[in-house]
Amino acid sequence: MARCAFCKTQETKSREYSVPVCSDCLDIGKPESNRNTGIHSILCHGLAEAHFRFEAASTKLNAIPRSLPHSDGVQCLLNASSELAAARIKRKRAQDRLDGYLSRGIVPDELKHSD
């Protein structure tokens, strides 16, 4: 079992958007939660997932042995560096979306409900 990505205290098998989340932190679907809480939760989950992908790409880059033959080593480093750069951009985008929602109340278009 994995620890909850948000409170880091509880072990959980539950996953939301590929991120481990305990029942206490999962507020989507609770009767007392409103639409804004759901949007906040979705954006937090997106940020956590982007952060986990960034950490995985960073670990992958750091795990490449520096003693590979030159051509193989260079290509492995280029691939891992590209993956890390893409993960960094996605993490920044997720952080900006959450910051925009929290500071200015901007709801991303794909999360707006058409009534």
Quickly give the structural class. Answer: mainly alpha
Read across the widest sheet, the strand sequence of neighbours is 1-2
Helix content: 40-55%
Q: How many angstroms separate the termini? A: 39 Å
Your description of this structure?
The chain has 115 residues and is mainly alpha-helical. The protein has a domain at 34-111. 55% of the residues lie in helices and 7% in strands. It contains 2 helices and 4 strands. The protein has helices at residues 35-62, 70-104, and strands at residues 2-3, 11-12, 15-16, 19-20. The strands form 2 sheets. Strands 1-2 form a two-stranded antiparallel sheet. A two-stranded antiparallel sheet has the order 3-4. A hairpin with a 7-residue loop joins strand 1 and strand 2 (11-12). Helix 1 (35-62) packs antiparallel against helix 2. The protein is flat, with a radius of gyration of 18 Å. The N and C termini lie far apart (39 Å). The relative contact order is 0.12.
List keywords for this structure.
115 residues; mainly alpha; two-stranded antiparallel ribbon
Please describe the topology of this protein.
Blueprint: E1 2-3, E2 11-12, E3 15-16, E4 19-20, H1 35-62, H2 70-104
Helix pairs in contact: 1-2
In short:
The protein has helices at 35-62, 70-104, and strands at residues 2-3, 11-12, 15-16, 19-20.
